[in-house]
Write a structure and sequence with these properties.
Layout: H1 12-17, H2 28-31, H3 41-55, H4 64-81, H5 84-98, E1 101-108, E2 115-122
Antiparallel strand pairs: 1-2
Helix pairs in contact: 3-4
Length: 125
């Protein structure tokens, strides 16, 4: 699944991060090239730093929008996996995805903190 849209044949997950199409979209740990449910916060931080450093070397201006999007996804993965208040939902949803479920989220509420509901649907084989 290429996020590149107009860049036919270019798959940033595969070409930059080594994530093959059958593992896309990647869960947060896979995005950082980590084993699922890696508990070491320093390992998570170092993995994200390594990938962010690599994306910083993408010099072709044509790929800058894609590099920026992947960069932001990696920052989000790092923030989620190193924040104890965000990791529980991410871990549960990651496990659901790894075990053959598609996950959709829905934010409800007005003002204040929204309530997030999740819908799990088993993928057909």
């Amino acid at each position: 699944m290429s996020m590149a849209g107009s860049y036919v044949g270019f798959d940033p997950y595969q070409q930059w991060l080594g994530i093959p199409p059958h593992e896309q979209p990647p869960h947060l740990y896979r995005l950082l090239s980590l084993q699922a449910f890696e508990p070491d916060l320093q390992t998570i931080a170092m993995a994200s730093d390594r990938l962010l450093g690599y994306l910083g070397t993408v010099s072709d201006p044509a790929y800058a929008p894609i590099a920026t999007r992947v960069y932001e996804e990696i920052l989000t993965a790092r923030a989620t996996l190193t924040d104890p208040y965000r990791i529980m939902p991410a871990g549960v949803l990651g496990a659901a995805r790894l075990n053959g479920f598609d996950v959709q989220s829905f934010a409800l509420g007005t003002g204040g903190t929204p309530v997030v509901l999740y819908s799990l649907t088993r993928r057909r084989r």
